[in-house]
Amino acid sequence: MQIDQKLIQKYNTPVPRYTSYPPANFFTPDFTADDYIRILERSNDENPQNISIYIHIPFCPKICYYCGCNTHLTKDQDKMRRYVDAVKKEILMVKSYLDPNRKVSQVHWGGGTPNSLPVGMIDEIMEVIHDNFTFIDKAEIAMECHPAMLDEEFIERLVAMKFNRFSLGIQDFDQKVLDNVNRDGSIIPVEELVAMIRKHPNTGINLDFIYGLPYQDVDSFAKTIERAIEISPDRLVTFSYAHVPWVRKAQKILEAKGLPSASKKLDMFEKGYQLLTKSGYAAIGLDHYAKPDDELAIAFNSKKLHRNFQGYCTRETTGQVYAFGATGISQLESAYAQNIKDTNTYVDQINKGKFTVEKGYELTQREKIIRHVINEVMCNYYISWKETEQVFGVTVDEIKKAISYEEESLGAFAEEGLLIFNNDEITVPDRGKFFVRNIAANLDPNLKNATQKFSRAL
Asked: How far apart are CA 438 and CA 13, in angstroms?
């Protein structure tokens, strides 16, 4: 599908990525550790009842220039040891406030580079989790892995800890692209790594890629995606590179090397979309693809897809997210709470028995309605006003007053073929999926007078 260049120019504006609502740059230091404790206790009586655990490992042996995550360059195992001990202690601190009858539906390790930790330290944290929580059947236990630091022994150890999903951060198969963004490629061919993982039944494989990096073009990115299709992962992600040099100074290096234009980025996205859907993958949300029998594809087709900071998930694995580690963000029903970023301060405070919440945000009932509407549009490309009315027990008119519902602006999107709306629902067709962040932003009343900075939509 060829997108009109005029639409690209019109909608390539800074808007939130909406991995949370409100976005993380709305968080405030007024939200304290005492507020977090209050919200932890309150979360026991809120839905979803399931618990999702996020473990943040901020360590990397090498910093990739495109990275927007909180990372810390180190190979110091003593520093890692102190950090791991603090994470274990934080887990027990949070557990003391949670209803023991609640079950874990998801564990996700992110970073940084989680598999840069010695595997024995990973085992220690998982042992604390398994010893102190019960799990639902078929809980998802996943790790984001750097393929350059993965081998068969490491995979075997993770599977023994009950990890059942591996997300391999490939980014690109073109070595020139990797060299220029300071990313090591896989030492073991990715095809062999995937075969090692596939030896274990009921273990899912994700391959993650980024488009919009220096020296990428449509042809080179197509070759990367074609190789990925041959490898045949269960899920595949094509992330749009988010250029935020005011947050991550290393990204300025990429400016000097030359970043593709918005139209070229969209050409790469479209090519990937065409190749993947033609090969049988279902497009999920804005940037994910899954095989048709994958639970994400099934959830999307039934309009029951959900998303948190860790990515898309099903209603079965959806839980309130309790995050552990420096800069980890807990996503609870009524609030967000983010830990301090500095690892040394994090360790010192946890060792004193103190939570390290640096900032957060407590949602009003109105903001929960807005969050629901934006999540539905971003995840399922659809919002039913009647269904939303049933979720919140308020009228459709009250829902529309809570959000930024303006028929004139929706009509403008509709005239361009980017959405379809009537009194009952909004639907985003294929043509509008490329601009879903813009559509979501149009429904967000908090964005009208926002002073925060965001990456561009395309």
From this structure: 8
Structure-token pair, residue 26: 């709305």
> Going along 157-196, which residue ranges are E strands?
165-171
SS3 at position 126: helix
Mean pLDDT of 93-111: 97
Hey, CA dihedral for 127, 133, 138, 143, is it positive or negative? negative
Predicted local confidence at residue 70, as pLDDT: 73
Q: Which residues contact 357 (CB under 8 A, 6 or more apart)?
A: 31, 32, 33, 35, 36, 337, 338, 339, 340
What digits encode the pLDDT tens for the residues 283-341? 987 789 999 999 999 999 998 998 887 788 887 788 999 999 999 999 999 999 999 99
Span 372-399, pLDDT tens digits: 999 999 999 999 999 999 999 999 999 9
Cβ neighbours of 177 (radius 10 Å): 21
User: Could you tell me if 15 and 441 are in contact, meaning their C-beta atoms sit under 8 angstroms apart?
Assistant: yes
pTM of the model: 0.93
Residues 6+ apart with CB under 8 A from 429: 381, 417, 418, 419, 420
The residues, any chain, with a CB within 8 Å of residue 302's CB and separated by 6 or more, are none
> Is residue 48 reached through a cis peptide bond, with omega within 30 degrees of 0 on the bond before it?
yes
Q: Which residues pair with 205 in a beta bridge?
A: 166
Output Rg (C-alpha) for the chain, integer angstroms.
Answer: 21
For residue 305, the tally of other CB atoms under 10 A from its CB is 26
Query: pLDDT tens, 27-68?
Result: 999 999 999 999 999 999 999 999 999 999 999 988 898 987
Task: Answer yes or no: are the C-beta atoms of 356 and 339 closer than 8 Å.
Answer: yes
Question: Among all chains, which residue has been given the structure tokens 């599977």?
Answer: 159
Backbone angles phi, psi at 105, to 5 degrees: -110, -15
Q: What is the DSSP string of 347-414?
A: HHHHHTT---EEEEEEPPHHHHHHHHHHHHHHHHSEEEHHHHHHHHTS-HHHHHHHTT--HHHHHHHH
Residue 144: other Cβ atoms inside 10 A: 23
